[in-house]
Here is the input.
Amino acid sequence: MNENTETFELEALQKRDRAVFAQVMDQNSDRIYRLGLKMLGNVQDAEDILQETFIKAFNNIDQFEGRSKVFNLALQNCGQRISNVAAKA
Here is the structure.
């Protein structure tokens, strides 16, 4: 994917284009799920991270500047989840 494609994609996402958002989900879901599973150790938490990542991305897309990828948001979500679990222990 080149920079022009990413710019178009970001603009479409910021206009709440659900078809483009579905493409982004399709392109990133497996990788984000595997990250969640590896970092959190169970299927339910990995599924939660996957869902939370895309909900946060969709709800906050107008604030997104395009300097990072959706995968980075997933990484942050995993880190937050691990911190929350550790704090409760």
User: Anything to note?
Assistant: Residues 1-5 have pLDDT under 50 and may be disordered. The domain at 3-88 is CATH 1.10.1740.10 (Rna Polymerase Sigma Factor; Chain: A). The chain has four helices and no strands. Residues 18-40 form the longest helix (23 residues).
